[in-house]
Amino acid sequence: MNTRPYSLDALFQSVKSVSGVGPRLTKLLEKLVGPCVVHLLWHLPAGVIDRRYSPPLREAKGGQVATLQLSVLEHMEPKRRGLPYRVKCSDGTGVIDLTFFNVRGDYLDHQLPVGAVRVVSGKLEFYNGYLQMPHPDFIVTPEEKHLIPAIEPIYPLTAGITHKVIYKIIRGALLRAPDLEEWLDPAYQKREQWPSWHDAVAAAHAPQDEHGLSPLHPARMRLAYDEMLANQLTLSLLRLRQKKQKGRSLAGDDTLFARALASLPFTLTGAQDAAVAEIRKDLASPDRMHRLLQGDVGSGKTAVGFLAMVHAVGSGCQAALMAPTEILARQHEHKLKPLAEALGLNVVTLTGRDKGKTRAAILAQMADGRAHIVIGTHALFQDDVVFKDLGFVIIDEQHRFGVHQRLQLSAKGALADVLVMTATPIPRTLTLTVYGDMDVSRLNEKPAGRQPIDTRLVSNERIDEVIDGIGRKISGGERIYWVCPLVEESEKLDLAAAEERYRHIHQRYGERTGLLHGRMKPAEKDAVMEKFAHGELDILVATTVIEVGVDVPEATVMIIEHAERFGLAQLHQLRGRIGRGTGKSTCLLLYAAKCSEVARQRLATIRDSEDGFFISEQDLKLRGAGEMLGTKQSGLPAFRLTSAEHHQDLIATAHDDARLILDRDPDLLSPRGKALRTLLYLFERDTAIKYLRSG
Ligand code: ADP
Ligand code: MG
């Protein structure tokens, strides 16, 4: 059956179905964990409070969390402002003050009536020799004692949600976790001594001590493995499907190809040459090509892609190049159109911006084959986009696209060969999580004549000197990128900061300063970008919209404000915008004076290396324990349960496991296969299921 099994229904209800969750909490939870109950289960505790310490007061130690049964003796209102309200209590062996700031007396009268017995839990302190417990976490009657968890998991929070609330909500979600048929290989599960899925979820949310929080705890290992297995199954299914479909042989046109090669304004590097040869061989073979072109920023992937398209088009079919953003699609158009037209090839570009008649005209050219090469954004996915004969697809900077989208586009050309180009130099061990087992070509060499980039760390306090320094650079004819701080989770604030900086620099250096940000209309963005590329602007103040792919070889200075807020991969990408021509380039990383030691260490990594692979390995190491695989910054798909640092071995195992499973049971029809379908649904890999025969 190719629909989600009923057993998962409860998990895919909205978080608002959990008792105690109203509209306000729903919004907050959607942001913190995700829209469904299952996402609450993936929200694992980050700490633990042991409340089992329960000493007689006369022996109680300060600094510890304790749970105590006490008689309430007396309420003492604060004598003056700034002092706490105190409630004196006793257990017969000694006395303790429960202290409260800013709490109404009548509320406390109700919670802690004089003469009553209450169980309280919180941190003990000594103050002037007196034992006290400021703001107990729990105050309950002896009958409600069970409401105090002996060992309490502590969850990552967001503003507006308290510990108590999230604890209660997640307990509610856990009650919905069903028993599911086991999908793990029994022998492997036994060897690893992993619990069932249900028990793993329960255990991961009930850590008994610090070890229970470790990514190496069996419960967490199991969940990480489940996540990786779902990921690897999805990729393997995709791969299998692509293999099953026959490809076509694109022989190319050698004369046309030779002319294209000769028309480039440079000679290919050895690495480009080798990659082009591999790709042409794949295109010519009757198997369907599925290749990854991995090359650090500035290694010249575009030229390789262009030559590959010329080869494909020389065989009589159409080729498409898909970029992640409007700016990049336009940039490719500007670079490739003249080259292609000189060869007699027709290039059209389709993006979300094209509407009405313009769009219809472009679509017509694609449908009747007049367009040889089509450049575009994800607008190319739309249903009414039809090619006459799409034989070859290039997906540029693919980490911006999901597997799902990759599938959609290749469906436009049933037999189309696919080349994915990426500049994300992810560590080799992690390549599997993104690309499964695609064939890989690497551009491990930069074009000759590039000079190393002079990268420096500069304290934010010296920003005025930096702004002064720009003047000298401009008079020397250099072009400058100024990248504005990334303010977490708030595009609005990003924008305000960028606009503010722009005004400041504009005031100082005048008309030849431009501003580029994500909220601008595409046409405005293009216009600014074009002016900068053509030298009508000297300074481009921008948010990270320029991060990926933008190519202006004349730009030689990059200034990044609050560099400590960026991921290393992102900084590397940003810096990759300069050092593209033969001029000497400088990158200034401005950092907040009070940023942490680790942050500074990370920046030093960037300063000292231009090797994307090295940087990504360091990034992983420095991000340290608990860091989940894939964040928005790294460009990897987000995993909730897998830690890049601790679970690398699991990835390889899951990869082999997935292959073995599909070798034996390609449509997941066996009993274990059916359980694995549930796993795929559990991790929302619904698209993968579409490629299975129903069973
Ligand atoms: P990326 O791999 O980051 O996409 P691009 O394809 O944008 O890199 O190329 C970066 C710059 O290097 C471009 O300006 C391009 O014209 C230039 N370039 C590419 N290949 C060569 C080469 N073999 N020799 C000299 N310059 C090259
Ligand atoms: Mg590129």
Question: What's the layout of helices and strands?
Answer:
Layout lengths: L22 H10 L4 H5 L5 E4 L14 E12 L8 E6 L4 E6 L4 H7 L5 E7 L1 E3 L2 E5 L3 E3 L10 E4 L8 H13 L10 H7 L4 H8 L13 H27 L9 H10 L6 H15 L5 E6 L5 H13 L4 E5 L3 H17 L4 E4 L5 H13 L4 E4 L13 E7 L6 H8 L6 E6 L5 H8 L3 E5 L10 E6 L3 H13 L3 E5 L7 H19 L3 E4 L5 H12 L5 E4 L12 E6 L7 H8 L10 E6 L5 H12 L3 H12 L24 H17 L6 H12 L3 H5 L5
Parallel strand pairs: 4-7, 10-15, 10-16, 11-13, 11-14, 12-13, 14-15, 17-22, 18-20, 18-21, 19-20, 21-22
Antiparallel strand pairs: 1-9, 2-3, 2-5, 3-4, 5-8, 6-7
Helix pairs in contact: 6-7, 7-14, 7-21, 9-10, 14-21, 19-20
Magnesium ion binds next to helix 10.
Describe this protein's structure.
The chain is of the alpha/beta class. The protein starts with 22 loop residues before the first helix and ends in a 5-residue tail after the last helix. It is 39% helix and 17% strand. The protein is globular. The protein is built from 23 helices and 22 strands. Among the domains are: 52-148, Beta Barrel (OB fold (Dihydrolipoamide Acetyltransferase, E2P)), CATH 2.40.50.140; 254-443, 3-Layer(aba) Sandwich (Rossmann fold); 453-609, Rossmann fold (3-Layer(aba) Sandwich), CATH 3.40.50. Helix 6 (197-204) crosses helix 7, helix 9 (270-284) packs parallel to helix 10 and helix 19 runs antiparallel to helix 20 (612-623). The strands form 4 sheets. Strands 6-7-4-3-2-5-8 form a 7-stranded mixed β-sheet. A 7-stranded parallel β-sheet has the order 12-13-11-14-15-10-16, sandwiched between helices. Strands 17-22-21-18-20-19 form a 6-stranded parallel β-sheet, sandwiched between helices. The model is unreliable at 630-636 (pLDDT under 50). It binds adenosine-5'-diphosphate (ADP) and magnesium ion. Residues 266-269, 272, 295, 297-303, 423, 447, 549, 551, 553, 580 line the site of adenosine-5'-diphosphate (ADP). Magnesium ion is lined by residues 301-302, 396, 549.
